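Q: Could you write out the predicted structure for this multi-component system? I'm mainly interested in how the pieces pack against one another.
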Amino acid sequence: MSKEAVLILGARSDIGFAVARRFAQAGHAIQLALRDAQGFEDHRRDLELRSNVGVTLHEFDVLDSAGIEPFLDSLPELPIVVVCAVGTMNEQGRSEQEPDLASLDMRSNFEGPALVLGAIANRFETRGRGTIVGISSVAGDRGRATNYIYGAAKAGFSAFLSGLRNRLTGTGVHVITVKPGFVATRMTDGLDLPEKLTAAPSELGEAIFSAVQKGRNVIYVRRVWWLVMTIICAIPEAIFKKLRI
Amino acid sequence: MKLSGWGRYPQVECTLHHPRDAHALRDLVTQAGAEAPVIARGNGRAYGDAALAPTGTVSMCAMDQMIHFDAQTGVLQAQAGVLLADVISAFLPRGWFPMVTPGTRFVTLGGMAAADVHGKNHHIDGSFRSCVVWLDLMRPDGSTVRVTPDKTPDLFDRTLGGMGLTGVILQLCIRLTRVETGWIHQHTIDAPNLDAAMAAFEDNPDATYSVAWIDCLAKGAALGRSLVMLGEHATLAQLPANLRRRPLQLPPKPRKAIRMTFPMCALNRWSVKAFNALYYWKSRRKTNSFVDWESYFYPLDAVLGWNRIYGRKGFVQFQCVLPLDRSADGMRALLSEISAAGQGSFLAVLKRFGAQDSAFSFPTEGYTLALDFPATPACLALLTRLEPIVADHGGRFYLAKDAVLSAQRLRETDGRAKGFADTRLAQGEAGVFSSAQSARLKL
Ligand SMILES: Cc1cc2nc3c(=O)[nH]c(=O)nc-3n(C[C@H](O)[C@H](O)[C@H](O)COP(=O)(O)OP(=O)(O)OC[C@H]3O[C@@H](n4cnc5c(N)ncnc54)[C@H](O)[C@@H]3O)c2cc1C
Ligand SMILES: NC(=O)c1ccc[n+]([C@@H]2O[C@H](COP(=O)([O-])OP(=O)(O)OC[C@H]3O[C@@H](n4cnc5c(N)ncnc54)[C@H](OP(=O)(O)O)[C@@H]3O)[C@@H](O)[C@H]2O)c1
């Protein structure tokens, strides 16, 4: 018998799937929600084989706000933990010129995830139990020239998670904000990332699993990013605006 | 980006790819050519430059799906990037263990096949090839061939131990072995010198696992002083009652990680000596004991990133095998040279291999010696003194550990190298699959 289910939104994400593996390893049933769910059958089977737990696939598009309630109703059970790994990151330069692209990043990183987690929060609150994990980004801690559209959406998402946590404190429902720095995934393929600051997806899996066990509020992965961002946020705006970092 | 093997020496600027499926891989292979060859990379646990290609290093780590498991026969079908560690976590709780395992579990199945790895049971079960039912190999033209010992014996023989030079392994089907518990019943023999150590191996040919840890600083009459460790999978009935309740589960242990790179001086002669002595005495305390699988097979895995203790320059590993009839003389000569140099190796391991006859795999009947050295000028010089001793005794070197061998030395010590290289040319493999190692060794 598997333990209570964990729902992964955006399960094709390298980070999301690593999180799924970690919870499956701990014996939880897994609900994988993603676009083109059928094409993910091999991954579903992989999880089942590795961990001997029940794994189900669910069609899910974060931009379909009308579909949220039917999607939640269709799940085999209300999960005990939900992890949202959905996100897009278009090239900043292009987003500056093409409003549709900018809008896509804003909606996929903020609006969509916030609406679906909000709906889940209501159900968790009624039940009186559950943990909501949102994967935001260090890019949301301060807007920078090279990725402020993505960063602004993540900033919105971080603020949403912070407020949700505040609202739900005392209800039995807990909210965790995850702020990865660099992670070697499909999103960053081809970028030459500094080794010491770059986490493998499995590190995110471990960090998120442990944050859920311990009921942490905000985590940076790798942890050194907390220091990096504290310094970046402390730079006075008059100086910051002239920097290219 | 700069990549290296586990020894962190040499470091080579490489273009790294992460194909996620056979299509993406096929594009990389068909675009490769003599000017820009590619090589597959697993988890980078080969010590030297076997999994590095400046023009195209193809990480298989994203292709890590398990595909099928037959709970009756213990046959697992999985993609090449699956880690052995994950196979153990998935199937040991169901009573299955790898038939052949190297001294670390952080290797991929593809890397195990390409190096045709051996474990402490080589004299009984042979190398990794013994458990491979078939494998799917991407050839130079981008086509995929199912390679089996029966239907494609030549390609099978060349691919197992072929160090990625015949193609890219996509997935494989391997046999696991049944175990009742996750514990090993270990018997330790105290061997005061090399003769005693070798006698211990020869007297215990039926022990499933056997390996010796050598104190490389012992000299004179104590030359080759070792602890010979024999092991058997413990049955449920053998286990003490307190372990019998959850025989396949281990209590979780804290794992230490080494992220910082140690300064070289942390590992001078004296600290190695202290470590050697400590290890010798600690292990001497008990001759019979139950050891959990993790501590028994993978003592080094408990310290993640331990390769960094050797400092920035990295380290090299030396592993050779000498034929049985020349082993006693040859090992004595090697150990004398090593102990005289006083560059005490952190780890020195001696093991008896069983018979094996293969196209390019490392093992052959005799004794194998493996040791680590920091990549300092003094140690690299010592290596150049050890090489001729191996050559003179009819021995050869393990490419999964090698970072320094010359093409000439390889041909001198391994009569199969020329044939292997010729076949690679004839099959069109040489122009597509090439590593920094194969370029150095002219394979
Ligand atoms: C601590 C430690 C202990 C070890 N103990 C042992 C031991 O006891 N016995 C032993 O035999 N070895 C041992 N080794 C060596 C190790 O088992 C081999 O080097 C193994 O090949 C590493 O696997 P990998 O996945 O890391 O491959 P890599 O190091 O990434 O690659 C090794 C070779 O395999 C090839 N390769 C990798 N994946 C593929 C693929 N999918 N298709 C085709 N070729 C591929 C590469 O081209 C390269 O030539 C040890 C290594 C360490 C670090
Ligand atoms: N990689 C990093 O360095 C890094 C750093 C900080 C934060 N993050 C965040 O970490 C999370 C996971 O990213 P990742 O690195 O794992 O990259 P990824 O593999 O690209 O994952 C992003 C996932 O979001 C999904 N997605 C996008 N739009 C969607 C939609 N409309 N509906 C449903 N799913 C949608 C994508 O699904 P499809 O496969 O269907 O396109 C994709 O699987 C993201 O929120 C990202 O912003 C990543």
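A: Regarding packing and overall arrangement: Chain A touches chain B through 16 residues (CB under 8 Å).
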